[in-house]
Amino acid sequence: MSIRGLTSDIVTRRPGQKLSFILAFITISLYIHIAYFLQRTETADLLISYSIIFILYLTLTRSVLSFKYLLGFGIIFRLIFMFSIPNLSDDFNRFFWDGVLIDNQINPFLFLPREIMENPSITIPAINKALFEALNSPDYYTVYPPICQFVFWISASLSGGNLRIAVLIMKIFMFLAEMGSIFLIIKLLKIHKIRREFVLFYILNPLVIIELVGSIHFEAFLIFFVLLAVYFIQNKRLVSGSFAFAFAIASKLTPILMLPFFLKRLRIKNAIIFYGLTIAIVVVTFLPFIGSALVTGLSSSIGLYFQTFEFNASIFYIVREIGFWIKGWDIIQMAGKWLALSTIIIILFSTFFENTKKQNLPGIFLWPLFVYFAFASIIHPWYVTPLVVFSLFSNYRFPIIWSFTIFLSYSGYGADGFKEHLWVLLVEYLPVYGYMIYEILKNKDLIIIKNPWPEIV
Fold first, then answer.
1. Within its chain, how far is the Cα of 375 from the centroid?
2. Of 11, 55, 63, 254, which one has the fewest beta carbons inside 10 Å?
3. Cα(207)–Cα(46) distance, integer angstroms
């Protein structure tokens, strides 16, 4: 059965109740295994465990268990990770580092971690050699926006400088954001006359569970605030929607890519109000960190992101290989700029010529993010989680496939460091792009070439 067939016919050929409970408890045991007993360098064990969980996930979404039972299991799966230290990502160390700095009245955008360690006038017990050596970016300025920094600060402050307690507090924030997102998904599915059972493909999705609450990634806040903004706007609460969307941008910068898609749906007058308020609120959230240090540090780190780092890319790697063939060296600095420009052009084109009669507001957000990821030079597994939720409001299910195949990127982590394999990239991306093209050709509902201005005005 295809992914689309699975999601559109969730009530047929369902496993029995007893079997469903058994599968749910097997899933719980595997989540415990991943959360507390595995490291990301244990590739075979990790990928086998995840693959089994994913199969069980697809099975549970169409089981005879009631909606409340499945919702409860989704909550339980998240709670399993609450007391674990993330083992698939070490970003939490930088989260704690930034939070401790803020708690000691130091702007985290002002200094590199190495500069903090080499500055004899800064003596903070929690900022020590062990924490510094655990950072994956000691020579880069922080890139985390204000909402993230607020969570870091609260967690560090309440923890009394204890990393484990700070991680638990951060996970509580992630869990609450997830609960809010699930509530909003159900509300929005009802507004768009889509069966509420579709939310199960988010609630039970193992990538979402492992990467958001499990590994403390702030896509959880992005998802929550974007959905909240959509909910407010569709209920004619434009100011509240502006605040929510501004907080989404202040959690992760990528929602900026979604801004053009409000234009046709709000029309010019309301769009001006929405954009003006959103920009103003984002600026206000940055005020505590404002100054040349913020501009210099943030722009420096973002520039490095686009022109230095490479991980699990798709189209970028093809362009890079062409560059090796023509130029003889890695053209990431030049290619990064051109691919970023291509992303902007494609998004703006699709903004003006999208088929608004066939695409609702949360569903269309799938595409600017996907285009950005397609051209990006670095794609971590947790990046895909927003695509999963936005796909629920569209006719496209390829993000569910990607939420499985992208986990293969962890196969590059070994005892001797990180090394990517071509076969992994092919296995990851061929099914995703193949099924996406199939769905685009089948649905024919994305682009309509006509004069866009009457619809905007």
1. 16
2. 11
3. 13
Find all residues with CB under 8 Å of 59, minimum gap 6, and list them.
Answer: 15, 20, 23
Burial of 10 (0-12, 13-18, 19+ CB in 10 A): middle
Bridge pairing between strands 417-418 and 413-414? antiparallel
Q: Note the pLDDT tens digit of each residue in 46-103.
A: 999 999 999 999 999 989 999 999 999 999 999 999 999 999 999 999 999 999 999 9
Tens of pLDDT along 270-326?
A: 999 999 999 999 999 998 887 656 666 666 656 655 556 789 999 989 988 888 777
- The encoded tokens of residue 424 equal 């992994």
- Residues 405, 410, 323, 143: is their CA dihedral positive or negative? positive
Cα angle 457, 246, 204; round to 5: 105
For residue 109, give the DSSP letter.
Answer: T
Cα–Cα nearest to 340, from 302, 380, 372, 387: 372
pTM above 0.90, yes or no: yes
Beta-bridge partner residues of 414: 417
